[in-house]
Design a protein that fits this description.
CATH superfamily of the largest domain in chain A: Dehydroquinate synthase-like - alpha domain
Largest sheet of chain A: 7 strands, mixed
Shape of chain A: globular
Number of helices of chain A: 13
CATH topology of the largest domain in chain A: Dehydroquinate synthase-like, alpha domain
Strand content of chain A: 15-25%
Structural class of chain A: alpha/beta
Oligomer: homodimer
Number of strands of chain A: 13
CATH class of the largest domain in chain A: Mainly Alpha
Strand order of the largest sheet of chain A: 1-2-9-6-5-3-4
CATH architecture of the largest domain in chain A: Up-down Bundle
Helix content of chain A: 40-55%
Largest interface: A-B, 36 and 36 residues
Number of domains of chain A: 2
Order of helices and strands of chain A: EEHEHEHEHEHEEEHHHHHHHEEEEH
Amino acid sequence: MQTLHVELGDRRYPIFIGSHLNINELLLPYITGHQVMIVTNDTVEKLYANTYQQALQALGKTVKLCVLRDGEKYKNLENLNLIFDALLQAGFNRDCTVLALGGGVIGDMAGFAAASFQRGVNFIQVPTTLLSQVDSSVGGKTGINHPLGKNMIGAFKQPSVVFADMAQLKSLPPRELSAGLAEIIKYALLGDIEFLAWLEMHMDGLIQGDEALLAEAVYRSCAHKARIVANDEKEHGERALLNLGHTFGHAIESYLGYGVWLHGEAIATGMVMAADLSCQMGWISEADLIRTKVIFQRAQLPIACPPIPLEQFLEYMVHDKKVLNGQLRLILMKGVGQAVITKEFNLEAMKQAIVNNQLKE
Amino acid sequence: MQTLHVELGDRRYPIFIGSHLNINELLLPYITGHQVMIVTNDTVEKLYANTYQQALQALGKTVKLCVLRDGEKYKNLENLNLIFDALLQAGFNRDCTVLALGGGVIGDMAGFAAASFQRGVNFIQVPTTLLSQVDSSVGGKTGINHPLGKNMIGAFKQPSVVFADMAQLKSLPPRELSAGLAEIIKYALLGDIEFLAWLEMHMDGLIQGDEALLAEAVYRSCAHKARIVANDEKEHGERALLNLGHTFGHAIESYLGYGVWLHGEAIATGMVMAADLSCQMGWISEADLIRTKVIFQRAQLPIACPPIPLEQFLEYMVHDKKVLNGQLRLILMKGVGQAVITKEFNLEAMKQAIVNNQLKE
């Protein structure tokens, strides 16, 4: 087992990364009160809810379950309110703990509920997908979607501990494993060319679910993210680099409707678009663009989106949070492993990058 | 004009207190971006929205209005969502400012919306009721109600500036002026016997709406609250003193239904119950209990609630946030002007204090 400490001043917390992690030993110290609300979805509930519920009950905790429906389309205000209903119906107070057991959607919703219930209660994350192990474990971003935009409503809420158990990835559908790999590849592309080489070497093992390789990839990705987030907790500068591929990706997700494509799939294609634009700007070579596409393909990720009318694509892009005073900033690559935040790009080239990476009708 | 600085580390902000405050000079420096959403209600809109909208538009800002229905019963998730709808329909980004123009309900909802929209945007408070000038101006508590409890969902969100204009109190119904005085009297009862003497001397002028006296009372109350909050921003200790009368008061509000009694009316009776219990415990004299009742009566506030079955009253009390691990703590008086947080009280005496201060059926 590896432990990564995320340093955020007085809100330092550990991420435990390994296989078959010990709940009694590792989780218990972080449950400060007596009441635990496990927030999960109807898929994960059947797989792992019992294990956590029984272990915590055996340790003397009052444990309740709040089971939401599985899927990004349920990440809205209505389903968030079901968590508040469950907490209040259980009579839970401000000493309670909210434990997120599931993927990114559950982590986002349970985290926002933990941030808002009684203006903030203890929060623990048990991410059960590869994507959420690398994405939601670090950074404290929580939130819900709105019909007019993704993650538009939320809070910064740091967990007291994150429990990333590779053994729980066994039940993950291959498509979701790939979506997690998209996020892992992102860390390589934005800041670590050696990690990119490591991923190129081990992609076959990763795709086959090798737990040791996955743990190493999760550890490295989380360490990258933790370093960036510690420098810039509230996303005023460097942290925006983590959005490589996201402005394009969000447009794809918004157009297709939340949940049709997985987040990881959308940002994989989004990163290809960002690389394409970077290549047109002369910042990366044609060979690097191909290298980018190949690593995503080997991770079984889409590198082109369905046809989307350009006007609509652009409309969705400017609804994205990265627009400051109407000025669109993008995360682009000034080299492989070297992302930058910039508004100095050619708008026509940007449109071309979108068109280039769509499937033909 | 007086200026009170609330000290919260890097989130220091001023409260401007006076009559006919200058928007251009005092407000403009705190609007960092170009987009301003004025959140108000349908009563306040008619009185003051135009003034703020025109002044800010003349200064080059894009100003939109979000008008909610007036009343505590609208302080819920559904109406909160109307603010998000307005922000997103206007295409506002994370550089925008949310300006709360109204009483406590508007401040709570707009503040929570500002805390949650894009995970936090700039927030300005223009409280237009006496209660909100002393209560919501300091402390950063924002939130909404849930059918199972008051203020159960929310965030700590500090404004960048508060604008307390006594001239705006002219339009306030007498009942709401009294409700504000309840909160002002609270600061005297919990920690400042000299302020209590000052209030006893000036109560007639205050009730008549004397702006200079009101400004002084608001300044003193905010200064008290600011000192307490600066010591204990997240309510782990001393800040709980501010809840004098609130556990009883919330039970009254919950039973009657939100908005039937004003918050200030409920806590006035709640403080009488707390004083009654304190008197039974031998901590304050019979004369002090009478003094407490008299100051509330002179402020035209109720000192007894309608008949509420004791069982239900207690049920509503333990749903209150001040219950830690099932152990009820109350804010009581160990002397006039000297409140304490304690669980060391006689339960039968508490029940008696509730029964003593109800109207007979």
